[in-house]
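Exercise 7.
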Amino acid sequence: ITVKVSNTIKYTPFGTKSFCYGESVSIRDTVNRLLRHNDNVIAKSGLKYNVYLLNGDSRGIEITQNVKSSKSRHESDTTRYLINIYDEVSGCEKRDTATIIFHALPDAKVVEKIEACQDVAITLPTPTNQEFNYVWKRSAGDKIEGVPTLLALSADETITLTEENKLTGCQDTFEVKVT
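Solution. The predicted structure, written as tokens, is:
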């Protein structure tokens, strides 16, 4: 008796994927992209898969929609999913674990309103955390340059401070009214 074993499922493991809070992720679209080998799309007519939420090591509910963070905007969120791929023609099955990390958004502590005299330069209160990049912009979108960041206004204006985490790339923008 000769037994021939063939791997009918060609799949690149999902691994860990990172996103920022507020982004929506389609695990199913990602699995479709991973079902390729050497840029050749696998004949998918008999190939099916399901994605399940993992509760510890136990299979939870099936995931059919995009996933988002279930935490608050300033808390990171890591969730694991079980991917079950099966070939209806051969009966072969393959399992994978996907880990999705939603990184928290920065949480700059900035004042919401600054009072200043007309045409007198003020120093903008830029946080000093070395793990983040900070960019002030005027309402027209022009970047306010300089360290320290100085600004002189002839009229009331709302400016923004964008804080970006250097490690994750996640960013948030805060408005400050200068009067």
